[in-house]
Amino acid sequence: MRNDLSIQKSTRRSLTIKFIDEYRNKKLIDEAVEAIRNVSRKEVTLMEVCGGHTMSIHKFGIPSLLPKNIKLLSGPGCPVCVTSRNFIDDTLECSKQDDIILTTLGDLIRVPGTETSLFKEKARGSDIRIVYSILDAIKIAEENKDKKVVFPGIGFETTAPLSATALIQTRDKGLNNFFILSAHKIMPPVMTALIDEGVKINGYICPGHVSVITGIQIYKPIVENYNLGCVVSGFEPLDILQSIYMLIKQIEQDSPALENQYSRAVKPEGNKKALEMMYRVFEPIDDWWRGIGNILNSGLALREEFKSFDARQLFDPLTRIDSNKDMGCICGEILKGLKTPADCPLFNKACTPVDPVGACMVSGEGSCATWYRYAREAV
Ligand code: SF4
After folding, report:
1. How many domains does the chain have?
2. Is the pLDDT of residue 229 over 90?
3. Which residues line ligand 1 (CB under 6 A)?
4. pLDDT, tens digit, 9 for 90 and up, residues 148-187
């Protein structure tokens, strides 16, 4: 006879399967595609700004289901891809200092800097260790009190609250050999910066995970000031098709609006506690986005109260101007939605996931890596 725990596990598993089945149900997907075809008349370009959406869109072949007048573009939604080359160079510089253990997420280790990468420097003997999260890095600091342990913090509102919470706990524990190199970023400024730059889109498929934390009101200025529809979307095929349908309806009726398709996960007000933690530790600063440039108040820096955790005091950071040695990589134009991986002459030739030239080929959420995995035959 099964005990309570195994029954609970089994029930949870069957619920999950049923849940996924519903959102991948062919009949429902066909109906959603039909609904889109029925309302869609105009030439429309929609942009997703979430690496998870980029993956889902290509994994499930969403573009092939849509009428030809609807184009999907990937924007700057992959945290590794938008992290500047300068930041990678800073991280490399930091790893060269005596007594430092540089911890890093697996994706970041292969992103090329100007001359080298963390992966190459690890092979040359630097103490660079892959971790799954900031919590692993803190554990390494606790176990190596004679060393300084540095964690490069990347990612958007999704990961910044975890970094903030971890730093508060680190301070409370009195651990003084742990440091963060923050490249955390926030999403709304880059979304408006792209429109200001003249990127031609008709609506945003807004990021699901970011919105779980922020809530949906952060997109209101985009609707009100730029007349662009914003729909917060989930990640399953039916989620994405439904979000596209909602945007197309807005566009056809000429009534841009802020809507929440992912209401099963995203509360309108978001996660207030997580946001409060994030802004207790970090404050907005101007920050550099790979291929896009410097964007006002788009990054997160440690507040004065937490400056003792700032890894930038351990070495001389490079100037905050992104080095522009691009080696033919067009990641920046892809992140701005001006080009697709198909436009890059290096795609699947000099640049592959095994030997990436640019950041967009490194992360599983990057446009180039996603195209390589799911759509390279079509290029
Ligand atoms: S295929 Fe490689 S070189 Fe080309 S844009 Fe993508 S990451 Fe850069």
Report:
1. 1
2. yes
3. 329-331, 334, 341, 344, 346-347, 351, 356-358, 360-361, 368
4. 999 999 999 999 999 999 999 999 999 999 999 999 999 9
- C-alpha 135 – ligand 1 centre gap (Å): 32
263 assigned to some structural domain: yes
Helix (H, G, I), strand (E, B) or coil at 264: coil
Q: What is the pLDDT of residue 98?
A: 86
Ligand 1 atom closest to residue 368's alpha carbon, by position in its atom list = 6
Distance CA 26, CA 369 (A): 27
**Residue 141, domain extent:** 40-47+78-323
Residue from 88, 117, 339, 360 to probe ligand 1 pocket by mutation (most atoms less than 8 Å from CB): 360
Residue 175 counted as domain residue? yes
In sequence order, the 6+-apart residues with CB closer than 8 A to the CB of 255 are none
In a domain, 370, yes or no: no
Determine the distance separating the centroid of ligand 1 and the alpha carbon of 354, expressed in angstroms: 12
CA 140 – CA 138 distance, rounded (Å): 5
pLDDT band at 319, cuts 50/70/90? low
Confidence class for position 11, pLDDT limits 50, 70, 90: low
CA nearest ligand 1 atom 7, residue: 358
Query: From the CA of 169, how far away is ligand 1's center (Å)?
Result: 39
Region of residue 74 (left: phi > 0; alpha: psi -120 to 50; beta: else): beta
CATH number, residue 303: 3.40.50.11740
Is the confidence at residue 306, as pLDDT, over 70? yes
Residues 106 and 10: their CA atoms lie apart, in Å, by 32
Give the residue, out of 74, 83, 330, 336, with the most ligand 1 atoms within 8 A of its beta carbon, to mutate for a pocket test.
330
Vertex 105: Cα angle to 290 and 130 (nearest 5): 140
Taking a C-beta distance cutoff of 8 angstroms, is the pair 317, 84 a contact? no
Q: Is residue 372 part of a domain?
A: no
Q: What six digits make up the tokens of 299? A: 């990054």
Q: Mean per-residue pLDDT for 31-37?
A: 96
Cα–Cα distance for residue pair 14/25, rounded to 1 Å: 16
State percent of the chain over pLDDT 90.
Answer: 79
